[in-house]
Specification:
Elements (H helix, E strand, L loop, with lengths): L6 E6 L4 E8 L3 H9 L1 H7 L6 E7 L6 E7 L5 E12 L3 E8 L13 E9 L5 E9 L2 H9 L2 H19 L1
Antiparallel strand pairs: 1-2, 2-8, 3-4, 4-5, 5-6, 6-7, 7-8
Helix pairs in contact: 1-2
Length: about 170
Amino acid sequence: MNANLLMNFSIDKKTNKVFVEREFAAPLPTVWAAWTQKELLDQWWAPKPWKAVTKSMDFTPSGYWHYYMESPEGERHWCRADYYEIEKEVFYTAQDAFCDEEGNINMEFPRCDWRNSYYSMPDGKTKVTIEATYKSLEDLEQIIRMGFQEGFTMALQNLDELLNNGN
């Protein structure tokens, strides 16, 4: 990650929320595309050496992204993100979940409500703010124990690499 780019990750156990602020050295339309197009998401979403593979994606309100993350040994973790509100290049809201290959939600794992907001910054940079809300403190703590902070930080570094290679 470029040392001049903002990266804040904080956890608020009183509100069961994770907050992330992250700057990218790319213009807003490019960063928005990387978060909303399956061909680009597949290139950065999973922490290395895992990879993300999209089965289907409908980035519209009431649509969803159905994908899996695969380890080098072939282990797969299926997920889906259900989209609710979308304002192009401004924000979107979604709820994520672990699921099976058919998209059926696995209720043994917590779901999370996401609000991702996008801001055009000086010098052609883009800031993304993420508010991820869990139903309970227990759900939040389970996700943190599963390595969410480390994995998501690594994925955001993958996005840096993708954006830098595209420039």
